[in-house]
Design a protein that fits this description.
Length: 337
Amino acid sequence: MSSNLRRIGRIGGEVAVVAIAIALGLGQASGAPTAPTSKSAPTSSSASEDTSMTLRAGQTGTQFKQMTIEGEDRVHVDFGRPELNMNLDPQDVPGLSRGTALDVLDRTVPDLSTPLVALSSQDRSPYVARPWLRQFATGSVARFRPAVKGAVRWKLLVADSRGETVATFDGKGDPPKEITWDGRGKSGAPVTPGLTYSYVFEAHDRAGNKRNFVGQGFTVSAYRVESPSGQTLVLSGRDLVALDSDGMSYGPTMRSKGKESPIFLEVASWLNQSNKVRDPVRVAVAARTMDQATTLANRASSALAGRVIGEPSRIQIVTEIVADAPEDGVLRIGPAK
């Protein structure tokens, strides 16, 4: 019984194909006729060359010819492999370059949401909006409803406590049913809350007669003014005193007694809605004395520092002494121009 065994190996970078024919000297199966034993033929010089086990280097496709082995059932073939020498210098290898820490940051995207989510599971975020806080008026701060008919032209004057005109409305024909004032003065700047304002309505008929209607005085409470640069929130010190004195409820589970005035929470909520979280925020305080202005400024700064998104250095304090300022002072909080 003979079988052919073929092995393929790579030696020194060349492929060597080894084909060995093994003839095992096993007996025939019982009952089978016994073949006569033949004498082996004399070995010639060419046969000895065919059965040579020498594989010369540099030869491609060298193949051993047939070889007969009697009395053996195993053939062990060893392949010689050269050692792999990786003596390389990373500085000289083409395609490799030393990087910097900036390269690592450019390849990776920092995860900013996971730390905030983990923090929110333990502590309440100070930047959450509070839509139930509505101490600041939006839109108009005063509405006038003149009930006059048959007028040819009319004029509405709004004056402050010093008698200076801060806003003027006029038109021809009958006046509208309602005239709204957004709290801006003639220069476009927000007027001072906490002062008493008055208004006078003038109407001229077709005969040239003029009639004046003097209205009752009113005060402007805290209000909000929108502009292209951002939102400006204006409030008087009286708004803080009113909330602190009676401990009134100012939203769900919020009371001002023993805590900072909730009106600053509303200020922070409006400021955090801006997408310019790196721009400075100015807190301008006007009062009759420097001590009063400094006290209001420090109170506003400490209340907003931990609630406004961004660095605490965003908040810039500006104090001013105004002789005819409201008794409790006034604060204007908005983008620094």
